[in-house]
Each structure stands twice: as structure tokens, then as C-alpha cells.
């Protein structure tokens, strides 16, 4: 028997051969292993519509041959319902995938830079799902922003190019997971850079501390960098990533003042002129910034320059870390460290056109201050 279908694994489009799955289950000694076989090919969409059933089945721990006994006929029905659910969801995801391909093609045809758009690990998500899970709509709620002191202008004009990765001020790309905590990653990345410039050591600091202990922001449902700076000041500093590890969901605050390895004294807002942002970055370190991330769902590589219709600068919904700038074949760019893992974009980075305030990149640049 050969039953083939198309589905997604980890958000990446792939082909599933269910005959292999059936064979795997036939020789498997337990239902747990059978479902593990299925998970090898099935999509991460299971948790979206069928999660409760999947968890139930994985927790049964019975031997596969036992479910054929009459007294366990309910297990057969549960398995049947699970697979009906999964097939229905696979069909829905396939339709979403095809619609997203059309969007990516439209972005590609109208892009003014050198970007390549296409299939990404987010291609099986609707725009609404993508925004609710990975983005931060709180950023566009301008009335909620805490006003920051204006940073003094940079002492020198911006050099032609600059990249803090080349100067040791940037940690490897991290992954926020299915949690809208980009604001925490943006701020912590900035503080890591500020602490490096002040003390000469690059330390991986804890985003989870902010997710758990910032009482003003909303953890995985979004937050504002201005609030995060204030939370760190009130707490008295930040622990290391090792001491306060990231889980991707809100927990009870477990901050320990004795484990603080970095602190900040205040925070400042950077001028909205892109030339001043570049000069300030080159002089003072990586910056916390935010932007409209619509095009980022389908970005693969190159310098992204979407039309404003795709990237309203007032609809900011994602916080990131600005680490440098330069030009590729004459196209000026910002180098942006994202928090969706190294398998996103260019080794975890997004490159955005510089010089036209694209996607609102200039509207929310800020930095911690370490005296």
C-alpha cells in the first residue's frame, strides 16, 4: 500500500510517504514509538489542532499489538481520530502554504533591493498565526511607550561601514521559539554589547529573566524595550543565560541578586535620522530597534527593500538588534540580528535597505547606558 501526502515538518515543506510510516509502526513494539515514527514525517502543526490527542496518545505507553484486542477498541478509535485530524490539518496547511507562495512571489517581483523570498520555516503559517506566535504587536501601541531620555549626538560622522560582529560585541544568534519575546532578546543583545564595550568581556545574558520578572510587559505576548530597561534597573541587573536559562514561556520570577553579572544605569532613545543612527551605532555599540516584520516571514537572503504597502513603518511588530551597516554591490543595508535561530535568513540575520527608513527601522532605536 502506498499512500502519499504532502505536509510540513518544522515549518518546512516536504513530502511524506505514509507507507514508510505504516511499516515503521508495524515493526514498532509500542504506540509511543509508532507516534515517534509519524512525527519524523508529520508536521509541527500537530500541536495547533491535534495537540491534545497527540499528547494523550504519546502518554498511553501501550504495546501496539495490545490495541487490537477487543477491550482496547477505544484506542483504535482514538488513533483513527488522531490521523483523521492530522490529514485534515495537513490539507489546510497545504492550502496556506500555496497562498504564502503567492505572497512570497509578489514580494519578490516588487522588491526594490536584492532580496530572495520564498519557502521558509514559517511558510505553513497564516499571517495571523505568524504575528500572534512570533511577533509583538505591542510595539505599535505608541501610547504605551515609556519616554526615554534623548541620547546625545555621536561625536563623529558615521564611517562608510561598520559591523560589531567583527569587533567581538555580538553573541551567536539565539532562538525565541514560539514566544513573542523578541523585545527581551533585542534589549538583552544591546546590554551584552554595552557590557562588552565597558568591560571587554562578552557574556551571554538571560532573556528569561525579563520574560519572568518584567511585571509591566506581557512575556510571550509582547513587550516594549523601554519597559525592559526599567525592569532591569529595578531588579539590579541581569543574570547569565546559564544561570537563568531560556524556556520560551513565562514562569515565576526566579531572579537572584547574588548572580547578577551585568547592570545598566539608564537608557536612551536615538535620533530617528538614519545617518545619526549609523554614527551612534559605530560609536556606542549595537542598538535595540524595531520594525514591521511582514516581509521577514518569507525572507531567505539578500538586502530586503519591500514597498511601503507591504511594510507600513507605523505598524511595527518585531524587536531586533542592529549590529552594523554597509553596502552590497552598491545597495546600502542594515545588518540585523534576529532571534529566530540560525536557520532563519542569512545564518539568523536579516538585511534591510538603509536610507529610506524602510519598515520603520528608525522609529524605535534605543540603548542601555552603562557608566
Automatic annotation (TrEMBL):
Tell me the ranges covered by the Peptidase C1A papain C-terminal domain, including all copies.
158-369
Q: Which Pfam families does this chain map to?
A: Inhibitor_I29, Peptidase_C1
A molecular function (GO) term: cysteine-type peptidase activity
Q: Which PROSITE patterns match?
A: THIOL_PROTEASE_CYS, THIOL_PROTEASE_HIS
Asked if the keyword Hydrolase belongs to this entry, the reply reads yes
Q: Which SMART domains match?
A: Inhibitor_I29, Pept_C1
Please give the name of this protein.
Cathepsin F
Upper classification of the organism: Eukaryota, Metazoa, Chordata, Craniata, Vertebrata
